């Protein structure tokens, strides 16, 4: 006569088609940083893209904010298994930043203030898939969440969304960044559960 309530099993994945395999929902916003939060003075802040020819395209804080800003509504998925649905950000599309950039290299190494790095194909930053985000839920991005600016690449696991982003370097090969050298997957698609390698 055991009656097992369906509710007992809680939020099963099949009830949440927005949740990639092996992920659970969280309502709060965990902070995951490999080191201390770097202090970046807006007067000194820059973001740059360096190509294989040595050419450097750079924007200071004012210049970044003068570019077209986009609102982004997206889900985010951390490899430690939390996902957050329906987050709201604003920032500058990488399509805008790459508009005047001439490169034939297919990969990018992302560099952050503080030394963090992460790698990805350039294609994953193009066509409306990635932004330099400066606000979260209508407020300037918290320093602990990457403020003043972080990369936002929500279709990959969240370690690819480098906090305190400082610049991108165009590279010929997909060399591993910080977490990728420490066992995280070279690409990191949450829908394919590409967590570790
Ligand atoms: N610069 C930098 N960016 C980073 C990290 C980091 O340690 N340093 N951690 C990554 C990881 S593993 C995750 S899950 C997210 C966490 O972002 P949050 O702290 O805003 O939740 O940032 C990513 N970006
Ligand atoms: Mo993470």
UniProtKB/TrEMBL annotation:
InterPro entries: OxRdtase_Mopterin-bd_dom, OxRdtase_Mopterin-bd_sf. It holds the Pfam family Oxidored_molyb. Residues 35-179 form the Oxidoreductase molybdopterin-binding domain. This is DMSO/TMAO reductase YedYZ molybdopterin-dependent catalytic subunit. It comes from Glaciihabitans tibetensis. The lineage of its organism: Bacteria, Bacillati, Actinomycetota, Actinomycetes, Micrococcales.
